[in-house]
Design a protein that fits this description.
Elements: E1 5-17, E2 26-33, E3 36-46, E4 51-54, E5 60-64, E6 69-79, H1 84-91, E7 95-97, E8 103-106, E9 116-126, E10 141-154, E11 166-172, E12 186-187, E13 194-195, E14 208-212, E15 220-226
Antiparallel strand pairs: 1-2, 1-9, 2-15, 3-6, 4-5, 6-11, 7-8, 9-10, 10-11, 10-14, 12-13
Length: 231
């Protein structure tokens, strides 16, 4: 696929992780939604220390540029849907349940620095050959995976006479136990059969991005299951 162009963001999925960055399997550990405005992934880079060798007469004998350190991505998600399930997975704040056992809200508590989640984003691709007769699937998407996000917290909230959005912030970590993941997100053969990642991210990697013809999951305003035994 030559030179794909990123169009609209489509769907986000978050998955609960344990303290080692491994997916937590079970019925209440995933959430898929599309009611968001933007997802910012801001690179956190620390400048390196330059070294200059200056002679007594003021002449510079040598110079070495410092090597910057990449600390990961600081994420900022602007979203609209006040879903207790999403807030609970991403921040660790507890869900408030109604008389029938259904989630109706959440509590704002102290920041749960030991909670973690993975975040996937699908964005539509514009390209002339996306829907060619010989192409598999029903289109193409740019797929982003941040396999280990921590320090999730909600930002300021202002309610008035305009549309209200919430802000979730967090920071990525490298490594973790995501492996090839619990989901089918990419073709694994020439027939376009959906499957898991072919290779895990490296131990010093924070994000993976690629084009896929495997469609994103459907948004569901409820917990979604994370299946065990598939990675």
């Amino acid at each position: 696929m030559p030179c794909p162009l990123i169009a609209n963001a489509d769907v986000i999925r978050v998955t609960r992780l344990d303290r080692c960055g491994r997916p937590v399997c079970g019925e209440d550990n995933g959430f898929v939604f599309d009611c968001f405005a933007t997802l910012a992934m801001n690179a956190n880079v620390e400048d390196g220390e330059d070294v200059a060798y200056t002679a007594a007469n003021g002449r510079q004998c040598g110079f070495k540029r410092g090597c910057p350190t990449f600390n990961g991505y600081d994420i900022e998600l602007n979203f609209f849907s006040v879903s207790p399930e999403f807030v609970e997975i991403t921040t660790g704040n507890p869900v408030v349940y109604g008389f029938d056992g259904e989630p109706i809200g959440y509590d704002d508590c102290s920041i749960q620095c030991n909670s973690a989640f993975a975040m996937e984003l699908w964005a539509e691709v514009l390209s002339a050959d996306v829907c060619d007769a010989d192409a598999g699937g029903d289109g193409a998407w740019i797929y982003f995976l941040m396999q280990w996000v921590t320090n999730g917290q909600l930002g300021d909230l202002e309610i008035g006479n305009e549309a209200v959005s919430l802000v979730l912030s967090g920071a990525t970590r490298a490594g973790g136990g995501w492996g090839t993941g619990p989901y089918d997100v990419m073709p694994v053969d020439a027939a376009g059969t959906p499957g898991q990642l072919l290779t895990p991210l490296g131990s010093n990697c924070h994000r993976r991005t690629f084009v896929t013809s495997v469609a994103p999951p459907e948004p569901v305003c409820a917990y979604t299951p994370v299946l065990c035994g598939t990675s």
